[in-house]
Amino acid sequence: MDKLRALHYFVAAAEEGSLSAAARRFDVSVPAVAKLVSALERELGVKLLDRSTQGLVLTARGAQYLEQCNPLLAQLADADRTITSPGTRRARTLVVGAPPLLSRAVLVPGLADWHQRHPHVHIDLRTLDFLTVKDSTTRGVDVLVALGWPGSVDLVQRPLAQSRLIVCASPAYWRLHGLPAQPSDLVNHACPLVRSPEGTVLDLWRYTREGDVQEVAVSGWLTCASRDDVLQAVLLGQGVGRFADLSVWPFVRDGLLQPALLDWESSDSPPFSALIRPESKREAAVQDFVGFLEEILRPIELLCSDAFGARPSAVRPRWYSSRPGRASKTVT
Questions:
Q1: Is pLDDT at 260 greater than 70 in this prediction?
Q2: What is the CATH number of domain 92-163+271-305?
Q3: How far apart (Å, rounded) are the C-alpha atoms in residues 87 and 288?
Q4: Which CATH fold would you assign to the domain 165-267+310-331?
């Protein structure tokens, strides 16, 4: 349990008289507040709040605890203001998590410019390849760049960009095996596949064009836990991959990857979002870094729109919360 965050949620709930108002104060969901307040009560072994249809009321022990917490939290806020007062530049380590493809192709090339503007901030970059976001993934991370539909209820979400999934192979592979004319032709190609952290092999590729829908269960001889490994196999001419266009834009631009089926839209295209811990969202370094992410992703999004087509709507696919197995089987 994040004790400091739980204390903030408890104080807000007590002051506002409701969990929903406390959630609005921190820009998180009501279940996120309820979860940590309940965890705090379990840890203390006392009931702090009485819940009713009329709202929340402090118990006698809760009122006593609130009286003790308020000065401590105020003292901590004073300490933060002192060290970040105007004219001072606080040395700061910012822990950033990002998918490996985006980190390699987009984020790392832009970090030198960030460092010039913010020399007092040290970046601790951690590559995290995932689709769903869990508490264990976000522990200790200040800003998380997520590709997909985050499942965590405890983090503030800021939209960054919308991807478009594109089918790619090396030019040499296409010369040898031929370009597919429609998605159903992909069954005749080797497609290195990625397995999600939940154990789902993402072999179901769904496409639409002018009302025509094709769902293709692709296959190949290689399954990887990392999209970076899938990319490496595709770059080496070992098959056909499907990638978020923003993540592989430099490889397409430089002719290392050649897209196909651009007249078909992949309806499973995931969005990019920044996920921030509620207590960190007002920190200058965090706000500046989220702005930096938008600054480097928006131009690439425009380039990809020109090259590959308009951004599709980010519809969460049916297999997203599937259990271990193949996406094509779990959906069926």
A1: yes
A2: 3.40.190.10
A3: 17
A4: D-Maltodextrin-Binding Protein; domain 2 (3.40.190)
